């Protein structure tokens, strides 16, 4: 069987190259744009963490909310959850603790890998990228990870690509 990372590499490349993601990575997002991105992250983390993750050290909702609060108190209004994010959160909300694991792999390893580079590039303290014990949290995912998850992880990538697409559309039209 093809290793999971290899079987999802094409979609990873596609997600990585989304214009909104490129702007984030290059440090080109304004505070309001990054705020909108965090609102979408918070929605995804909330649904997943309500179902449950394999390690408490993975959970991001509290730290994302702190990052949102920081930008909020800097004078930004509460933004709505985008339609593409609602579609993903509705899909996630129907999964049980085992079925949600491929999405834990996708969304939490995304923050861990490249996270330290992102942290430097975003207009925020970036608490979302700080893990108390990253190795332990990572191992909790590695222990349950299966190559059979490829289709489900790729489906998750499609949802996230749609979110990056909508983020770019709504921010460039502002
Ligand atoms: C600027 C954008 C991004 C960069 C630069 C980036 C970079 C990386 C790097 C360097 C790795 C480690 C690869 C390795 O172990 O050799 C990685 C892994 C990973 N990334 Fe990204 N990434 C980006 C965006 C994303 C996005 C948007 C997602 C999904 C939401 C994502 C999901 C993942 C996952 C799940 C892994 C773990 C793969 C594994 O080891 O099994 N990444 N990324």
What does the model show?
The protein has 174 residues and is mostly helical. The protein has a single domain (4-15, 29-169), classed as Heme Oxygenase, Chain A (Up-down Bundle), CATH 1.20.910.10. Helix content is 67%, strand content 0%. The protein has helices at residues 4-7, 9-16, 19-25, 31-51, 61-73, 83-93, 101-112, 115-121, 134-144, 150-172. α4 (31-51) runs parallel beside α6, α6 runs antiparallel to α10 (150-172) and α7 (101-112) crosses α10. The longest helix has 23 residues, at 150-172. The structure holds protoporphyrin IX containing FE (HEM).
Task: Give me a quick take on this structure.
The protein is mainly α. It has 10 helices and no strands.
């Amino acid at each position: 069987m093809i290793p999971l990372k290899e079987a999802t590499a094409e979609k990873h490349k596609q997600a990585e190259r989304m214009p909104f993601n490129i702007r984030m990575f290059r440090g080109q997002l304004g505070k309001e744009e990054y705020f909108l991105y965090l609102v979408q992250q918070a929605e995804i983390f909330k649904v997943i963490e309500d179902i449950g993750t394999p390690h408490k050290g993975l959970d991001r909702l509290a730290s994302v909310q702190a990052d949102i609060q920081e930008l909020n108190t800097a004078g930004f209004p509460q933004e709505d959850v985008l339609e593409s994010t609602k579609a993903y959160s509705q899909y996630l909300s129907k999964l049980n603790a085992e079925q949600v694991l491929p999405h834990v792999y996708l969304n939490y390893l995304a923050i861990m890998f490249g996270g330290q580079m992102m942290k430097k590039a975003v207009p925020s303290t970036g608490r979302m990228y700080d893990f108390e014990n990253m190795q332990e949290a990572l191992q909790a995912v590695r222990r349950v990870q299966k190559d059979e998850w490829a289709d489900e992880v790729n489906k998750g990538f499609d949802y996230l690509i749609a979110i990056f697409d909508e983020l770019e559309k709504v921010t460039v039209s502002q």
